[in-house]
Write a sequence for this structure.
């Protein structure tokens, strides 16, 4: 019974983590790469843009990053947070 309880807690923890949104104003380049269509180059561009211009006011502001067009925005928008 104890193993079952521990297993259930582990599954709940992992499920919560899997559905956590990425905060684009706080995420590291490595964390940003967990977004679909965002590799190392785009992740670094997001971090540099944030450092130069300040926090993003809305997720759609990511469209100003080179390489993030409508198709990528459609994929990442549900997984992003501010």
């Amino acid at each position: 019974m104890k193993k079952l309880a521990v297993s259930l807690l582990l599954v709940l923890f992992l499920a919560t983590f899997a559905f956590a949104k990425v905060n684009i104003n706080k995420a590291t380049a490595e964390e940003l790469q967990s977004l679909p269509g965002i590799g190392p180059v785009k992740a670094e561009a997001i971090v540099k843009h944030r450092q130069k211009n300040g926090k993003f006011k809305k997720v759609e502001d990511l469209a100003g990053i080179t390489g993030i067009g409508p198709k990528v925005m459609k994929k990442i928008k549900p997984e992003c947070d501010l």
The domain at 21-81 is CATH 1.10.150.320 (DNA polymerase; domain 1). The first strand starts at residue 22 and ends at 23.
